[in-house]
Amino acid sequence: MNRSNAPIFVVGANRSGTTLVRLMLNAHPRIAIPEELNYFKRVGTSTPWHRPGWTDAAYARFAEGTLSHFAPLLPNLPVDAARERLLGAASPTYRTPYATLLEMWAAQEGKARWGEKTPGNLFFVDQLIEMFPDAQFIYVARDPRAGVASMQRVSFFPDDVIFNALNRRKSWNVGYQLLERIVPKAQRIAIRYEDLVRAPRDMAETLCTFLDESYAPAMLRFHTDAEHYMKTEAANSFNEAATRPISTARIDTWKDKLTPTEVGWVESLCADEMQAFAYQPTHPQRSLRARITQHIKSAYWHYDVWRHRYYRPYIVRHVPGQSLRNKLRDWSKWLQSRCDPLHDIASGEGVR
After folding, report:
1. Among 28, 48, 139, 254, which is least packed, fewest CB within 10 Å?
2. Contacts of residue 15, Cβ cutoff 8 Å, sequence gap at least 6
3. 98-114 pLDDT tens trace
4. pTM here?
5. Contact 254, 148 (CB under 8 A)
6. 300 membership: H or E segment, kind and range
């Protein structure tokens, strides 16, 4: 590929505005970026991408599985033609299904370039830059306090401020540092969510300059057909804001969503990221109990991440003992359902 058609990867911590950037770029007449594909969940991290060691049958199974996974996320992808091209590929690697399906989908959309937005790709930029040496990376930063407050509202993150702050810090300490170390400076850019929503046209023009593309006014009208490029669940719940015009309303909502103690936890754990992107801390007072709680939960978080160290993007999703509490709750409900009829009979309410 020549430089003008290089792949684009939008990365960042979860709940940082990567979906907004994806939809804006997808509205550009030359760029197609679908829902996040989570391709490296299929690939894993133990096998080099260029030496998969497949037999013909093993590759066929992988290609078919990848096509089945991608097809619902790539609207109007010509599935039969995609299958034929995948199975006819010579000397396939893990790059083959990834690039082939996204190239075909972009062409179907009438676009010259394709991109991908999976936050977890941040932890695989070393493999991505080897797969696609001319790729360009857009890192989206957001005030960690706002990011954590947003994570608290989403069911697939733990209902725990400390764990979410630690998960977010990993994106900075591990993911962003990898991006800076591996990807040439000319091929990456970091932007702030707050700058994007305060001056969307200016930031859209900045991104287009970085990508060597002409600015397109359609980028600011992305919301008119955003739902077509989003999962129904996302469009109706945790990413609903992305289906509306850009607004600054969410910038400071963390001030109402987080208590002073919770703000202190986030500012303490994400201090380096806040300093790097010029987010000013408020330094709220934290009690001794709050500090001890932070240390205890941090110790557990590090232990759990260590146990799952072979999966780079791993984040802690459950509070310790949550599984047991869920089982006890379910058992209590079952027991209650059994006891209620007996109570009705004993009281005469169950007698006709």
Report:
1. 48
2. 142, 147, 150, 151, 154
3. 999 999 999 999 999 99
4. 0.86
5. yes
6. helix 288-307
